[in-house]
Design goal:
This protein is an alpha/beta fold and 225 residues long. Helix content is 34%, strand content 26%. It is built from eight helices and ten strands. The strands form two sheets. A six-stranded mixed β-sheet has the order 6-7-8-3-9-10, with helices on both faces. Strands 2-1-4-5 form a four-stranded antiparallel β-sheet, covered by helices on one side. The model has no long low-confidence stretch (mean pLDDT 90).
């Protein structure tokens, strides 16, 4: 069993767009081996929170730490290409490439050095339930659920500690949603910290902890499943 450790910590994080205070004094700790569901109404700050966690936006005040290191002192590009894997609702795959080529490209960007990147891509895609034949298809020839599996594989390609998913089941039917959640639960059982932004109550119900953002008072509240 993987040792549970703190991999991400937010301390008194605030974020404002001009006079619009989106995040106010957010303090929360994220641990390995757990799934966190971030919920709340539109405009409550869910996407902003992800942007801050992923290093795409700097908080107006407060600190973000990854494995004990202040994000302000880290190379943001290296952080995003090695420490944290992001999965988007719209997949954000390169449609002219095959599934395997998308995963290989992600490894190249992260500077992964291995003997056979193609085989590593096949292995990771198999881990998320895609066959060799599907791995060799251009992504436009794959279903939505298969494309989301490719997006997960791409995020896994450089073995980050944190997997962050923005509405990963939003475009999927209920059966496929459950299959994607099975994969994410499997990643948590392997020691990954999985953070999911979702509007789905059924997805949130499968998390270990639920974080609710409130638009009128966007302080984080959490409840353990």
């Amino acid at each position: 069993m993987e040792e549970i450790k703190e991999v991400l910590r937010l301390e008194n994080v605030n974020f404002s767009y001009g006079a619009n205070h989106v995040l106010q004094d957010v303090s929360f700790s994220f641990k390995s081996g757990k799934i966190y569901a971030v919920t709340g109404k539109s405009g409550a700050g869910k996407t902003t929170l992800l942007s801050v966690i992923s290093g795409l936006a700097d908080p107006s005040s407060g600190e973000v730490f990854c494995n004990g290191q202040n994000l302000k002192e880290m190379d943001k590009y290296e952080y995003r290409s090695k420490s944290i894997g992001v999965i988007f609702q719209s997949f954000n795959l390169l449609t002219k490439l095959t599934a395997a080529e998308n995963v290989e490209l992600s490894m190249d960007i992260a500077g992964i050095d291995c003997e056979d990147k193609k085989q590593r891509a096949y292995d990771i895609l198999a881990q998320v339930g895609l066959s060799r034949d599907e791995a060799d298809r251009r992504v436009l020839k794959l279903s939505g659920g298969q494309q989301q599996r490719v997006a997960i594989a791409r995020a896994l390609s450089y073995d980050p500690d944190i997997i962050m998913a923005d509405e990963p089941t939003g475009n999927l039917d209920e059966e496929t949603q459950d299959e994607i959640m099975d994969i994410l639960e499997g990643l948590a059982s392997q020691g990954k910290c999985v953070i999911i932004v979702t509007h789905s109550s059924s997805v949130a119900a499968r998390a270990d902890e639920k974080i609710v953002l409130y638009k009128d008072n966007p302080a984080i509240r959490d409840s353990v499943r």
